[in-house]
Amino acid sequence: MSKTISLRLASSLRNRMILIFFMIIVVPFLWFAYYAHVKSIEGISNANLSMTNNYLLQVRKNFQNYLGALNEQVNDLIGDKRLQDLLEPASGGAASEESFTVDLLTWLYQRTSSVDAFRVSVYPIDLGRHADYLSTIGEPNVGAQAWFRQSAAQVSPSWYLKLPEKGRLERPLLSYVKRFSGLYDQTPRGIVATDVSEDQFKRFFSPSGQMIEQRLLLLRNDDGVVLYDSFENGWTGTPFPSSGFVEQFRAGSEGEKTIALGGSKYLASFVRMDNEPWAIVSLTPLKDLTGTIDEINRATVYFLIGYLLCCVGVVLYITASFTQPIVRLVRYMRKLESGDYQQQIPPSRRQDEVGWLYRGFGSLIRKIEGLIVEASRAERDKKELEFQVLSHQINPHFLYNTLESIRWKAEKHGAGEVAQMVASLGNLLRLSLNQGKEITTLGRELEQVKAYVQIEQARMGRPIRILYGVDDELKELPFLRLLLQPLVENAIQHSIRNDFESGKILISARREGGDIEIDIIDNGGGIPPEALAKLDMEEPPGSRSSESAKGVGLRNVNNRLKLYFGEGYRLHIETGPEFGTKIALRHPILDKEEKSRPE
Fold first, then answer.
1. Which among 79, 208, 210, 501 is least buried, having the fewest CB atoms inside 10 angstroms?
2. Residue 537: phi, psi to the nearest 5?
3. What positions does the domain HAMP occupy (predicted)?
C-alpha cells in the first residue's frame, strides 16, 4: 500500500515540481551559500594578502630609493670644501672659536635645506676645542651619549633611534649618523647626524586606505624593536609583541602569518629590506576582512527561509493556475488524436499563455476542419485545371496548323514573300513557346533569332547583316529562353535601323569556365544614356514613354537573368556613339536535366 502511495505521489506533476524545486534550486543554493562563505573568506584574505604584499614591495622600493638619495645628499655635504676647511685641525683662541661657530652655523643654514630630512647636525670630532659651538646648538654633553661614542669609533654609518625626552625631543627620530674624515687624509674630522622624523616616514609608510585599521611598522631584524609605527608611533621603541613572528621574518625575506595581539587576530605580512637590517610589516585586523561576511551569512539565512516559503507558494500557485488547466487540455488533445473533431473546447477568458493555449487549440480544431474541406475542394479543382491544361494545349497546334495553311495558300497564289514571312512567324512562335518549358538550348535560341531577323527583313524590305560566331558544341547546352531575341531586336530598332548599308550585328559565344559568355555587338549609334540609366529601374504600370520603350528589352533580359541565376549574371553594357554597343551576357552551364525542366 505504501509503495502504491509513493508511486502516485511521484507521478503527480505538483509533487514532482516540489521535488525539482528542492533538488535543483534549494539544495544547490544551500551548498552554494556554504561554499561561497568559505571561499569568500579565503578569497578576501588572499586578495588582501596579494594586495598588501604588492604594496609592501612598493613601499620598500620607494623607501630604499629615499635612503639612497639621503646618503648621497649627506655625502655631498661631507665633500663640501667649506666644511672640510672649517673642521681642519688648527690652533686658535676665543676669537677663532666664535668665528668657527658663526661660520659653521651659517654653512649649515645654507646647505642643509637641500637634504630631505627633519634636521642635519654636524659635530666636530674634537669636542673639547668647540665647547662654544656645542653650547650654541644646545648639545654641550653630546660626547657623553652612547650613539656619539659608538659612531666616533667606527667607520661605517649607523642608524640610531632617538626617543622623546623631556625638554629635548617631542617625538621619536631615526638618526642616520656618519663619521667623515678629510678629503686627502684619513684623519677623522667630524660626524654628520641626519634625523628622519615621522613626516618623512608617512610619505612611504601610510596605510593603503582600503583598510581602516591597517598598521605599517618598521622593525629591526636583530631584536624586533619597532623603529616606526604608523599608528601614532604607539609601539615605537618597544619590541614587537609577537616573538614568533619576529623569528619568522628573521628567517625569510618575505611572508605572512595570522597572529593574535591584544585579544584580536591580525593578518601580518612582511618584507625585509635589502640594504638595511630592517623589515617592513603590515598588520590588518581580520575583523575588517571578515566582518561583512558575518552580516552576509545572517542575511543569507533570512533570505533562505523566505525563499523556501516563496517556493512552496509558487508551487501551489503553479499547480492551481497552470498544471490543472494543462491536464484538462491534454485530455482534449487525446480526444483529437482519436478523430473527435466535434468536441467543444470551453472558452477561456485568461489573457496569459494558458488562455492562449485554449483559444489556440480551439482555433486549431476549426482550422483542421476547414483544411479538410479545402483539401477536398482543392482535389476537385486540381482535376478541373488538369482538364483545362489538356484542352488549352490544342490551341498552339491549331495556330501552327492555321499559319501552315496560310503559307500553303500564299505559295499557291505566288506570294512567296508572304509564305516565307508566315513560315518564319510560325517558327518564331514555336520556338518562343518551347512547349511550356523555361529552359531551351542555345541552338534553338539562335534559330529563334534567325526567324525574327527574317521577319524583320521581310517587313522592312531591307537586308540585315548579322554574323554568328558560335561553335556547334555550344548549341546543345541548356539555355534560358527569350534572352537573345530581345537584345537583337534592340540592336536592330535602336542602333542600325537608320543605316542598314553599313550597320552590322555580331553574335559570338564561348565557354569561360563554368559559364557561357555571349557578346552581341553592333556598330550603330549606341544606347542613349537616359535609356541605359533606366536599365535597373522599374517602370510604373502603363508607362509607354519613348525612353521606356527603348530600354524595356534590355531591362526584361537583365531582370530575368538576375532572378533566375543571381546578381552575378546581370548584363554588362559598353556603349558610345563612336564605337556602337557591346552587350556581354553571361549564362551558367546547366546540367542536361535542366533542359527538360518545365516552367
1. 501
2. -100, 145
3. 320-373
Spatial separation of the C-alpha atoms in residues 599 and 597, rounded to whole Å: 7
Buried b (16+ CB within 10 A) or exposed e, 482-508: bbbbbbbebbbebbbbeeeeebbbbbe
Q: What distance in Å separates the CA atoms of residue 505 and residue 493, rounded to the nearest whole number?
A: 12
- β-partners of residue 256 are 269
Cβ atoms of residues 519 and 506 within 8 Å: yes
Q: Which three cell numbers stand for residue 564?
A: 533566375
The C-alpha cell 552551364 sits at: 589
Which one, of 419, 440, 426, 511, lies nearest residue 482 by Cα? 440
Query: Can you tell me the distance from the alpha carbon of 480 to that of 559, in angstroms, rounded to the nearest whole number?
Result: 13
The CA distances from residue 233 to 222, 230, 380, 512, 533, in Å, are 20, 6, 106, 93, 90
Longest dimension (CA), the chain: 164
Q: How close are the terminal C-alpha atoms of the chain, in Å?
A: 72
Q: How far is CA 536 from CA 176, 290, 305, 381, in A?
A: 92, 74, 71, 39
- Cα–Cα distance, 464 to 580 (Å, whole number): 16
E-strand ranges in 443-522 read: 465-469, 478-480, 504-512, 515-522
Q: Which residue has the cell 660626547?
A: 143
Tell me the one-letter amino acid at 393: Q
Q: Determine the Cα–Cα distance for residues 201 and 204; give it in Å rounded to an integer.
A: 6
Closest C-alpha among 594, 348, 373, 571 to residue 481: 594
Asked whether 220 and 159 are in contact (CB, 8 A), the reply is no
Distance CA 439, CA 436 (A): 9
3-state class percentages of the chain: helix first, strand second, coil last, to nearest 5: 55, 20, 25
Return the amino acid letter for 301. V
- Angle between helix axes 324-337 and 353-392 (nearest 10 degrees) is 20
Quote the CA–CA distance of 554 and 490 in Å, as a whole number. Answer: 8
Global confidence as pTM: 0.46
pLDDT score recorded for residue 394: 40
**Using the 8-state DSSP alphabet, how is residue 92 labeled?**
-
Low-confidence ranges of the chain (pLDDT < 50): 1, 5-10, 91, 387, 389-395, 397-398, 537-550, 596-599
pLDDT score at 510: 94
d(CA 140, CA 147): 15
Cα distances from 441 to residues 157, 223, 225, 528, 596, in angstroms, run: 107, 107, 106, 32, 10
| Per-residue pLDDT tens over the stretch 185-224 | 888 889 999 999 988 888 888 776 555 678 899 999 888 8
Using CA atoms, how far apart are residues 506 and 349, in angstroms rounded to an integer? 75
Place of cell 661614542: 149
**Would you state the pLDDT for residue 9?**
45
